[in-house]
Amino acid sequence: MRSPHGSFGLCYRNKVLYENRMTHVLIISDIEGSSACWDRAGAAFLTRQWRKACIGMSLDINAVVTALFAAGAASVRVKDFHRTGYNLITSVIHPGAQIDQGYHAGPVPGVGDPGECRTLMMIGMHAASGTAGFIPHTLTSRISSLVINGCPTAEVSLFAASLAPFGLRPAFFSGCPRACRQALSAMPEIHTHAIDKSGGLEDFDAVAYRHRLAEAAVASLSNDAAEPFDWQGPFDVRVTFRNGPPAARQIGDRWGYQVDRDMVLFRADHFREMYMTLIRICYLTPLREKILPFSLGAFNAMGRLGLAYAKMMESSRIRSLRHADDELTY
Ligand SMILES: [Zn+2]
Fold first, then answer.
1. What pTM does this model have?
2. What residue numbers bound the domain in which 54 lies?
3. Which of 22, 62, 96, 263 is 20 to 30 Å from 115 by CA-CA measure?
């Protein structure tokens, strides 16, 4: 078939395909900025809205993965990174993708070993705690703001920096317009694609959105300007708790951190130390940390069960969807 751009277009396309053949992509997949999460219930666990959102999130990822493979990506690994880490319905996602569910203790907290992935895409993300945007939060909804070195901080920076030692370049980000702006202000070279939910669910064309999202993700394969987000310390961190001084005091007492009214304050010289401290504050107790392999295993088992329930409840809808088809609707 002749390229609409003539032989030069064909040549260019072959060159792009050749270059992409060496591209190993890691996708971090969240639900709030996906096409079927329209309220807090859609991001909660075991709700009817969440089950629906799981299907939409999976279809978004399927569209992106299918397009990345068509563009020549060598491999695509998808990290399910919302709440329990079990939201994606693998049967509706391109079978070539490696879907990684649940959380790993390390080497990258939560993500595990990124292997040979060098291109990082973050899809379906949300804005930072304490900012406007669609279901804004950072790490946990118990935090009303996370300020690092004077700046409200979104997960995009934490995730990208945690993967920087492994050489991953944050090439692409999708989420609400506010989340995209925050990603761009932290890393100006990242490509973004916003999902506009201001018109409401009735006027939203999910299939058209997935096409545009997939196209934007493919275009970011040639984002040569993105560099690993090597975030250097020292870090001065202020974590504000939504439930006020008692919640901050509980965390401060538990771990021995400084507390000021509804805030826990700490300093860290290096990113990893800062990130691990935040994970402690948000997700752990000293006992849970001591028995981490067991508590992670129990948490992952709960997530697996929850997703099995969602799949059972939505089985007829899921069966009606076909593999690896970016026209999928529900
Ligand atoms: Zn989430």
1. 0.91
2. 16-127+154-230+291-319
3. 62
